[in-house]
């Protein structure tokens, strides 16, 4: 994926949202807004000397849940919702998310310190349907998740929602915003709106390169056996 990048230099006011430093699930369900665009560049094709590595081999914490990813999408969503016992953010495996959100993409490059990924499907607690603004959330950690504070160990957060026509028009290119604790990239690809938060310490060019490395999650699941299929 190669995209134009609009760099928005003014700080954001995140109206009506949680603290981004609290981790996955606490960002606004609406698109963040920034100031006027000041520079335009292009997404680099690769990430040499940016401290990035392939996602291959990283520990996907919820791999053991992928074995439930069978049957229809409706049955899968019902089963995941019931697993969450009425909570909105429910732990879900890569195959479950790929099935729930056909065509959804995730990065294939991540900052080198990242060794764990957490993933969730996000439901409307009133309807038990996927939340449109944030349908899935991913946390990228440098250590075992939830052991150290997120401000130390969670280097990236990715939120995926269903794109509206207005968002598709406004975010056809990647927009970069300064937010508390780091920066956030926002864009629309296909049916989905993506918001990628990179914590301070991940350099801007590296974060932009990560955004340029997105590929369908389905492809990633094809080369990663489910936990029950692994040997040794």
Fold blueprint:
Blueprint: E1 4-11, E2 37-42, E3 52-54, E4 59-60, H1 73-83, E5 89-91, H2 94-100, E6 105-107, E7 109-111, E8 116-122, E9 136-141, H3 150-153, E10 154-162, H4 165-170, E11 174-179, E12 182-189, E13 192-199, H5 204-211, E14 214-216, H6 217-222
Parallel strand pairs: 1-11, 4-8
Antiparallel strand pairs: 1-2, 3-7, 5-8, 6-14, 8-9, 9-10, 10-13, 11-12, 12-13
Uncertain runs with pLDDT below 50, 5 residues or more? Answer: 6-47, 226-232
How many helices? The count is: 6
> What is the general shape?
globular
Order of helices and strands: EEEEHEHEEEEHEHEEEHEH
- Describe the sheet with the most strands: 10 strands, mixed
Q: Count the beta strands.
A: 14
Quaternary status of these chains? single chain
Radius of gyration of CA atoms, rounded to a whole number: 17 Å
CATH superfamily: MucB/RseB, C-terminal domain
Helix/strand-derived category reads alpha+beta
Q: The CATH topology is what?
A: Phosphorylase Kinase, domain 1
Q: What share of the residues lie within helices?
A: 10-25%
């Amino acid at each position: 994926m190669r995209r134009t990048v609009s760099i928005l230099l003014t700080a954001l006011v995140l109206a009506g949202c949680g603290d981004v430093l609290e981790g996955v699930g606490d960002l606004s369900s609406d698109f963040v807004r920034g100031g006027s665009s000041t520079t335009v560049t292009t997404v680099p094709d690769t990430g040499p000397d940016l401290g990035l590595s392939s996602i291959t081999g990283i520990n996907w914490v919820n791999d053991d849940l992928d074995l439930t990813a069978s049957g229809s999408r409706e049955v899968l969503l019902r089963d995941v919702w019931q697993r969450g016992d009425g909570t909105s953010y429910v732990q879900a495996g890569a195959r479950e998310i790929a099935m729930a959100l056909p065509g959804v993409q995730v990065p294939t490059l991540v900052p080198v310190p990242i060794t764990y990924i957490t993933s969730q499907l996000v439901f409307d607690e009133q309807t038990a349907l996927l939340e449109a603004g944030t349908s899935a959330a991913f946390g990228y950690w440098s250590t075992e998740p939830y052991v150290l504070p997120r401000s130390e160990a969670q280097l990236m957060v990715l939120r995926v929602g269903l794109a509206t026509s207005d968002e598709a028009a406004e975010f056809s290119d990647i927009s970069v915003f300064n937010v508390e604790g780091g920066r956030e990239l926002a864009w629309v690809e296909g049916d989905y709106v993506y918001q990628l938060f990179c914590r301070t310490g991940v350099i801007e060019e590296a974060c932009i390169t990560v955004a340029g490395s997105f590929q369908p999650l389905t492809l990633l699941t094809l080369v990663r056996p489910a936990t029950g299929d692994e040997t040794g």
